[in-house]
Amino acid sequence: MKGMERKTFEEIFLRWKDVVFREAYRWCGNEWDAEDITQEVFLRFWRWGKIPENPGVFLLRITRNLCVDRHRKKEGYPQPEPEKRKDDIMDLLSALSSLPEKERLCIELRYVEGLSIKEIGRILSIPEGTVKTHIFRGKKRLKKVLEDRWRISGK
Protein backbone atom coordinates (compact mmCIF):
# COMPACT_ATOMS: atom_id res chain seq x y z
CA MET A 1 0.00 0.00 0.00
CA LYS A 2 1.27 3.47 -0.84
CA GLY A 3 0.92 5.74 2.19
CA MET A 4 -0.96 3.69 4.73
CA GLU A 5 0.11 0.70 6.75
CA ARG A 6 -2.23 -2.28 6.92
CA LYS A 7 -2.54 -1.82 10.69
CA THR A 8 -3.59 1.81 10.24
CA PHE A 9 -6.20 0.77 7.69
CA GLU A 10 -7.51 -1.91 10.06
CA GLU A 11 -7.79 0.60 12.91
CA ILE A 12 -9.71 3.06 10.73
CA PHE A 13 -11.89 0.23 9.39
CA LEU A 14 -12.75 -1.02 12.88
CA ARG A 15 -13.50 2.52 14.09
CA TRP A 16 -15.71 3.54 11.14
CA LYS A 17 -17.26 0.39 9.58
CA ASP A 18 -20.47 0.54 11.63
CA VAL A 19 -20.88 4.27 11.05
CA VAL A 20 -20.42 3.80 7.29
CA PHE A 21 -22.87 0.89 7.27
CA ARG A 22 -25.54 2.85 9.16
CA GLU A 23 -25.11 5.82 6.82
CA ALA A 24 -25.42 3.57 3.77
CA TYR A 25 -28.47 1.88 5.30
CA ARG A 26 -30.15 5.23 5.88
CA TRP A 27 -29.64 6.15 2.24
CA CYS A 28 -30.49 2.74 0.73
CA GLY A 29 -33.08 1.43 3.14
CA ASN A 30 -31.90 -2.17 2.92
CA GLU A 31 -29.10 -4.26 4.37
CA TRP A 32 -27.84 -5.76 1.13
CA ASP A 33 -27.15 -2.48 -0.61
CA ALA A 34 -25.73 -1.02 2.59
CA GLU A 35 -23.29 -3.95 2.91
CA ASP A 36 -22.23 -3.60 -0.74
CA ILE A 37 -21.67 0.12 -0.35
CA THR A 38 -19.75 -0.34 2.90
CA GLN A 39 -17.42 -2.80 1.17
CA GLU A 40 -16.98 -0.46 -1.78
CA VAL A 41 -16.22 2.51 0.51
CA PHE A 42 -13.39 0.67 2.26
CA LEU A 43 -12.10 -0.82 -0.99
CA ARG A 44 -11.81 2.67 -2.44
CA PHE A 45 -10.20 3.92 0.76
CA TRP A 46 -7.64 1.08 0.62
CA ARG A 47 -6.88 1.76 -3.04
CA TRP A 48 -6.53 5.48 -2.38
CA GLY A 49 -3.77 4.61 0.06
CA LYS A 50 -3.53 7.89 1.94
CA ILE A 51 -4.65 8.87 5.42
CA PRO A 52 -6.97 11.87 5.16
CA GLU A 53 -6.92 14.54 7.83
CA ASN A 54 -10.44 13.54 8.88
CA PRO A 55 -11.03 9.88 7.95
CA GLY A 56 -14.63 9.92 9.18
CA VAL A 57 -15.67 12.83 7.00
CA PHE A 58 -13.80 11.32 4.06
CA LEU A 59 -15.47 7.92 4.48
CA LEU A 60 -18.94 9.40 4.96
CA ARG A 61 -18.51 11.54 1.86
CA ILE A 62 -17.57 8.46 -0.19
CA THR A 63 -20.56 6.64 1.31
CA ARG A 64 -22.97 9.42 0.40
CA ASN A 65 -21.61 9.68 -3.14
CA LEU A 66 -21.90 5.93 -3.72
CA CYS A 67 -25.45 5.92 -2.35
CA VAL A 68 -26.47 8.82 -4.58
CA ASP A 69 -24.91 7.07 -7.59
CA ARG A 70 -26.73 3.84 -6.78
CA HIS A 71 -30.02 5.72 -6.40
CA ARG A 72 -29.53 7.44 -9.76
CA LYS A 73 -28.89 4.10 -11.46
CA LYS A 74 -32.09 2.66 -10.01
CA GLU A 75 -34.26 5.59 -11.11
CA GLY A 76 -36.39 4.73 -14.05
CA TYR A 77 -36.85 1.17 -12.83
CA PRO A 78 -39.98 0.36 -10.87
CA GLN A 79 -39.12 0.26 -7.20
CA PRO A 80 -41.03 -1.78 -4.65
CA GLU A 81 -43.29 0.25 -2.40
CA PRO A 82 -41.55 0.88 0.92
CA GLU A 83 -42.97 -1.07 3.81
CA LYS A 84 -45.01 0.93 6.28
CA ARG A 85 -42.80 1.85 9.16
CA LYS A 86 -44.74 1.69 12.39
CA ASP A 87 -41.76 1.20 14.59
CA ASP A 88 -40.61 4.35 16.39
CA ILE A 89 -36.98 3.60 15.60
CA MET A 90 -37.70 3.49 11.88
CA ASP A 91 -39.60 6.77 12.18
CA LEU A 92 -36.61 8.29 13.92
CA LEU A 93 -34.16 7.07 11.27
CA SER A 94 -36.41 8.42 8.56
CA ALA A 95 -36.73 11.76 10.32
CA LEU A 96 -32.97 11.92 10.78
CA SER A 97 -32.43 11.43 7.08
CA SER A 98 -34.63 14.46 6.38
CA LEU A 99 -32.32 16.79 8.31
CA PRO A 100 -29.69 18.91 6.60
CA GLU A 101 -26.47 16.89 6.31
CA LYS A 102 -24.39 18.78 8.89
CA GLU A 103 -27.16 18.73 11.50
CA ARG A 104 -27.75 15.02 10.93
CA LEU A 105 -24.04 14.19 11.10
CA CYS A 106 -23.57 16.16 14.32
CA ILE A 107 -26.57 14.47 15.96
CA GLU A 108 -25.49 11.00 14.83
CA LEU A 109 -21.89 11.47 15.92
CA ARG A 110 -23.04 12.82 19.30
CA TYR A 111 -25.91 10.48 20.18
CA VAL A 112 -25.27 7.35 18.11
CA GLU A 113 -21.48 7.26 18.20
CA GLY A 114 -21.17 8.94 21.61
CA LEU A 115 -18.51 11.44 20.55
CA SER A 116 -17.84 14.64 22.46
CA ILE A 117 -18.54 18.08 21.00
CA LYS A 118 -14.78 18.59 20.69
CA GLU A 119 -14.30 15.29 18.81
CA ILE A 120 -17.15 16.11 16.44
CA GLY A 121 -15.67 19.53 15.74
CA ARG A 122 -12.30 17.96 15.00
CA ILE A 123 -13.80 15.28 12.72
CA LEU A 124 -15.94 17.75 10.77
CA SER A 125 -13.35 20.55 10.88
CA ILE A 126 -15.78 23.04 12.41
CA PRO A 127 -15.69 25.04 15.68
CA GLU A 128 -17.28 23.52 18.78
CA GLY A 129 -19.85 26.31 18.89
CA THR A 130 -20.95 25.41 15.38
CA VAL A 131 -21.31 21.76 16.42
CA LYS A 132 -23.55 22.83 19.31
CA THR A 133 -25.62 25.01 16.96
CA HIS A 134 -26.05 22.15 14.46
CA ILE A 135 -27.13 19.81 17.26
CA PHE A 136 -29.57 22.34 18.71
CA ARG A 137 -31.14 23.15 15.34
CA GLY A 138 -31.18 19.49 14.30
CA LYS A 139 -32.96 18.41 17.49
CA LYS A 140 -35.50 21.19 17.04
CA ARG A 141 -36.19 20.12 13.42
CA LEU A 142 -36.26 16.45 14.43
CA LYS A 143 -38.86 17.16 17.11
CA LYS A 144 -41.05 19.02 14.62
CA VAL A 145 -40.77 16.30 11.95
CA LEU A 146 -41.59 13.54 14.44
CA GLU A 147 -44.49 15.45 15.99
CA ASP A 148 -45.95 16.04 12.52
CA ARG A 149 -45.54 12.38 11.51
CA TRP A 150 -46.95 11.02 14.74
CA ARG A 151 -49.87 13.45 14.74
CA ILE A 152 -50.78 12.41 11.18
CA SER A 153 -50.37 8.69 11.90
CA GLY A 154 -52.15 8.91 15.26
CA LYS A 155 -49.21 7.67 17.35
Structure description:
The chain is mainly α and 155 residues long. It has two domains: 1-82, Rna Polymerase Sigma Factor, Chain: A (Orthogonal Bundle); 86-155, Arc Repressor Mutant, subunit A (Orthogonal Bundle), CATH 1.10.10.10. The protein has helices at residues 6-28, 31-48, 55-74, 88-97, 101-112, 117-124, 128-153. Helix 1 packs antiparallel against helix 2. It is globular, with a radius of gyration of 17 Å. The chain starts with 5 loop residues before the first helix and ends with a helix.
Topology summary:
Blueprint: H1 6-28, H2 31-48, H3 55-74, H4 88-97, H5 101-112, H6 117-124, H7 128-153
Helix pairs in contact: 1-2, 1-3, 2-3, 4-7, 5-7, 6-7
Task: List the keywords.
single chain, about 160 residues, mainly alpha, Rna Polymerase Sigma Factor, Chain: A, Arc Repressor Mutant, subunit A, 7 helices, globular
Brief rundown of the structure:
The protein has helices at 6-28, 31-48, 55-74, 88-97, 101-112, 117-124, 128-153. With 155 residues, it is mostly helical.
Order of helices and strands: HHHHHHH
- Subunit arrangement of the protein: single chain
- Please indicate the percent range of residues in DSSP E strands (runs of 2 or more): under 5%
Given helix and strand content, the structural type is mainly alpha
For the largest beta-sheet, the strand count, sense and barrel status come to: none
Number of strands: 0
Radius of gyration: 17 Å
Distance between the termini: 53 Å
**Overall pLDDT, averaged?**
81
Classified by CATH, the class of the largest domain is Mainly Alpha
Specify the number of helices: 7
Q: Could you list the spans in which at least 5 consecutive residues all have pLDDT below 50?
A: 76-86
- Label the CATH architecture of the largest domain: Orthogonal Bundle
Coarse morphology: globular
Fill in the CATH topology of the largest domain: Rna Polymerase Sigma Factor, Chain: A
- Integer count of domains: 2
State the share of residues found in helices, binned by percent: over 70%
